[in-house]
Amino acid sequence: FPSKLPDVGSSIFSQMSQLASEQQAINLSQGFPDFGCDPFLLQQLAAFSQQGLNQYAPMAGIVPLRQQIAALIARCYQQRVCPEQQITVTSGATEALFCAFQALVRPGDEVILFDPAYDSYAPAVQLAGGRCVHLALTAPDFKVDWQQVADSINRNTRLIIVNSPHNPSSQVFTAADWQQLETLVCQHGLYCLSDEVYEHMVFDGRPQLSALSFTELAARSLVVSSFGKTFHVTGWKLGYCVAPALLMTEFRKVHQYVTFSSFTPAQFAVAAMLEQHPEQVSGLAAFYQQKRDCFVAALATSRFQLLPAQGTYFQLADYSAISDQPDVEFCRWLTIEHKVAAIPLSVFYRQPPAQRLIRFCFAKNEQTLLQAAEVLCRL
Ligand code: PMP
Ligand code: GLN
Asked: Quick check: keyword Transferase in the entry (predicted)?
């Protein structure tokens, strides 16, 4: 069959989580918490569902949730966005990303993205008829070379995809990064897709910045986030997109026919959570910084070399002192022989550089982290 996505197989997350489950390994591969969410969120979910709020939500999301998202943006970034015209609730960030690409990318358009790149970007751009231009970022700091970005822009360039805090490198854009992005986007009349699903996990007192923090960039950006990450409920698949009204009109044309609307009781529950427990969001960075520090301290005597993690709930580790296997094989070996699963970094690159890096997810109970670290220290 002539596939529209000939290069796509099952995702590394599905592969590694399945292997971890078959091997009964500690799963630090796919990014999801092994602890529960706030009980308030579950009570609210049950309560709204029992009240009978089980039919289609409005296409753009329930109004109270959009109002709460606007309030959150005002708190975090001191920016005003219109809940009616500029916010749409989606079935996870994944749906928002897909709709954004479908709405913006036309056949023949070029889209600049940075490798290692989250796995859903390239296939979604391809389905929209776009061509991905991959720029490689390398360890240890995964810095964007903005001159290289400028040199990659041509008449066909439509969109730049950014992701800060970055999965899988855990690096966070500085204000200077955002400003250089803003300059390029505005100078060349491009658009920006800013994937900010880890926006509330920025460590060590770094400023929490968004494409929304920069007025001229915000005017040409679609910003995507996810309540799955923020409230420890990845399986709820609830996210949203923020964009200027004109772009949002186009985004909604697609969203309307991809899912139409998202799970109604969860929208009410998350709106209640945002209104009544804002500390769950503002405390998230400290919550995950503590987990990062716990994991890093527990690995202090291991032969892994840990890279600095500025944000997200991922920790990169260089294993070259332990093995010279390629990273995919190393991760399979680690899962099968030592019962700890991780994600190889090479799969996030179109042309993987010569490096031996794997990604651990530390969104886990302390006991899980310590158990895994004990094994890893013996390698
Ligand atoms: N973007 C990035 C960078 C992610 O890590 C993830 C989640 N793994 C997503 C998007 C998708 O988020 P969601 O689960 O809300 O679809
Ligand atoms: N975002 C998660 C990760 O990076 C995985 C999501 C998925 O399985 N598609 O691990």
From this structure: yes
The secondary structure element, H or E, covering residue 279 is helix 279-282
Q: What is the mean pLDDT of the chain?
A: 98
Alpha carbon of 325 to ligand 2 centroid (Å)? 24
Mean pLDDT of 293-306: 98
Cis, peptide link before residue 2, omega less than 30° from 0 = no
Task: Measure 205 CA to ligand 1 centroid, in angstroms.
Answer: 24
Res 176: pLDDT: 98
Could you tell me if the ipTM is greater than 0.95?
yes
| Two structure tokens written together for 252 | 């909604």
DSSP code string of 56-107: PPPTT--HHHHHHHHHHHHHHH-----HHHHEEEESHHHHHHHHHHHHH--T
Q: Which domain holds residue 290?
A: 12-30+283-377
**Which pLDDT tens digit goes with each residue over 254-283?**
999 999 999 999 999 999 999 999 999 999
**Structural domains counted in the chain:** 2
